[in-house]
Amino acid sequence: KQWYQRRVAITAGHIFRDQHLMMSLHPYLQLTQAVLAGDLAKFSIVLEKYSDKFMKEGTMTLINRLRHNVIKTGIKSVALSYSRISLADVADKLQLDSPEDAEYIIAKAIHDGVIEATIDHEKGYMQSNDSANVYGTNEPLKAYHERIRFCLDIHNHSIKAMRFPPKSYNDNLEDAQKQREREQQDLEYAKEIAEEEDDGML
To answer: Which alpha helices (DSSP H) does the chain contain, by range?
Structure first.
């Protein structure tokens, strides 16, 4: 997904740098930056500043739907940056109205699988789950073993193919041998005929 976001950013950058479109698309560039950064404050500022333009171009409804994506990206960023953070601080960072709003959004993000965390409702904080260190498990060893076995299988099949050529190859060898035998017989027969003719002339 990070690769996809980088690809979108690169593609969008080319579009926004087009000389013929730069001025008209500048508000949308700011929106794109806000969405990718999860910056709800910047998103709200851009939305308010260019609301007339968005209304005129018929994109306001679509842009309003992006607010959820901005918040989701912001929640992911907070969860990665803090092992524990109060709901009030989350609300402040995401420019939400109250800790209760932050609690609801965090709960939904956890339910949707956006983040791995728990909420302590009594103490009012979010606890991010530690990301599993895959290099501390046997998974890399298993993957490495599978790749080695795959390479060895290719090697063994190659050696077997060289030692035991396919039947069609043997058939071709047999046909060539028979052809040489027939040519040798024809040559000997021709020699016999030539000798008989020489004897007759004498």
So the answer is: 2-16, 22-37, 40-49, 51-56, 60-81, 87-93, 99-111, 139-163, 167-201
Q: Residue 18 burial by CB count (10 A; 0-12/13-18/19+): exposed, middle or buried?
A: exposed
CA distance 173 to 2: 58
131: which residues sit within 8 A by CB, 6+ positions away?
116
What sign does the dihedral 194-197-198-199 (CA atoms) show? positive
What's the number of CA atoms in the CB half-sphere (13 Å) around residue 61?
A: 1
Q: Give, for 86, the enclosing helix (H) or strand (E).
A: strand 84-86
pLDDT digits (tens, 9 = 90+) for 61-119: 989 988 888 888 888 888 888 888 999 998 888 888 888 988 988 898 888 888 888 88
Q: What is the pLDDT of residues 19-76, one digit of tens each?
A: 666 777 888 888 888 888 888 888 989 999 999 999 998 999 989 988 888 888 888 8
